[in-house]
Design goal:
Residues 82-342 form the Fe/B12 periplasmic-binding domain. This protein is an alpha/beta fold and 371 residues long. It contains 17 helices and twelve strands. The radius of gyration is 23 Å and the shape is globular.
């Protein structure tokens, strides 16, 4: 590499980001150390936008190459050893892949949200002790200097911070953009991360297991005389905000063997009480919200899902996160409740334990489902 190229990178950073003098000095020193090596540790090249399900991943001895959700080909010469994951679901996936020890940076939300902090403390004592750095203050607020100080060979993040992504790629740091907006994409992204971290055998085991569970649901659904309908309400009391057919919510409803009562393709439509009453869904599903919020609404008392006490809450939210392979557990939970009337809760608890044990190990599974 030529020194003029690296000097250009330094000038570009300083002209686009405002740092205190000490910070500026630190980042220049860091760039001088990091960027004067003969070759970058990894390469990213822009490719045309690709359809998610048609992407081909290419592991080999000489290079590890995948295409992310934005259509960029991300290539590493060696499996990543230092990973900064700023997309929360990617951290989760790395622990499932038994690659959590490679994580050197996490999103701030893991420390800021008690539910996430508890769950990740179960998975990693470093997080419990708050020993893993967080080079972000929240969504779209990455601290460039803090991130570079972690010396990652792979950064996993959402696609919102385009300037940060462009900068990191100019510096030769591989950036993999995650989206996790469909079940198919969740599976593909888990496979891609596995390739980049040398965990393909583990990924194959997880994906085969998840497909097996979905097949079991499909077999049982085929025996049902009536396909149940579901209305999904958002968290935080937003009971008239829902999800249309082009959403990951729709995916887990269909994976559960049910039908989304909302037929519009709009991802996040709002409805009024009259419309919900007209739809009269068999079941209502809430996200981390007390069902009493529905049962106590006077205007909803005529709904059969209210009268028959068929309002279900996906909680704790971490174990039902549909933006991870745990979407399968979400589907299993809903299928159990809508087609067996919630009978034998012990069976559902055992299912929770089996799935989480497969993903994280028996001890972590017990701690994650403990009251």
């Amino acid at each position: 590499m030529h020194h003029s190229r690296y000097n250009g990178h330094s000038d570009w950073i300083l002209s686009h980001f405002s740092f205190p003098k000490v910070v500026t000095f630190s980042i220049c020193v860091l760039l001088g150390i990091t960027l004067t090596s003969c070759q970058p540790r990894n390469i990213t090249e822009q490719k045309p936008q690709l359809e998610t399900q048609s992407v081909q991943t290419t592991p080999s001895r000489s290079r590890l190459s995948v295409v992310d959700s934005s259509g960029y080909r991300v290539t590493l010469k060696h499996p990543a050893q230092r990973v900064v994951c700023l997309f929360e679901s990617s951290c989760d996936g790395l622990y499932m892949l038994n690659q959590g020890n490679k994580i050197v940076g996490i999103p701030a939300e893991i420390y800021q949200q008690p539910m996430l902090y508890h769950a990740y403390s179960v998975l990693d004592p470093r997080i419990q002790a708050k020993q893993i750095q967080s080079p972000s203050q929240g969504n779209n607020a990455t601290n460039i200097e803090s991130l570079l100080m972690l010396q990652p060979d792979l950064v996993i993040m959402g696609g919102g911070e385009k300037q940060t992504i462009a900068l990191l790629r100019k510096l030769g740091i591989a950036v993999y953009i995650m989206e996790s907006s469909t079940y198919a994409q969740v599976k593909e992204e888990l496979s891609n991360i596995a390739i980049l971290t040398d965990a393909t055998v583990r990924a194959k085991t997880i994906l085969q297991y998840s497909d097996q569970k979905i097949t079991e649901i499909q077999r049982n659904t085929a025996k049902q005389p009536h396909q149940q309908t579901i209305y999904y309400a958002w968290s935080g009391g937003r009971i008239f905000s829902t999800s249309g057919t082009q959403s990951i919510t729709n995916d887990f409803i269909e994976l559960a063997g049910a039908k989304n009562i909302v037929s519009t393709k709009t991802n996040q439509p709002n409805v009024n009480p009259e419309t919900l009453i007209e739809w009269n869904p068999d079941n209502i599903v809430l996200w981390n919200t007390d069902p009493q919020l529905i049962y106590q609404r006077p205007e909803l008392q005529t709904l059969k899902s209210v009268q028959q006490r068929r309002v279900f809450n996906l909680s704790p939210a971490f174990i039902y996160n549909p933006h991870t392979i745990k979407i399968v557990l979400t589907a299993l939970y809903l299928h159990h409740h809508i087609y067996t009337d919630g009978q034998s809760s012990d069976n559902m608890k055992e299912t929770q334990y089996q799935v989480l044990s497969m993903l994280y190990g028996s001890k972590a599974a017990q701690d994650l489902i403990a009251p």
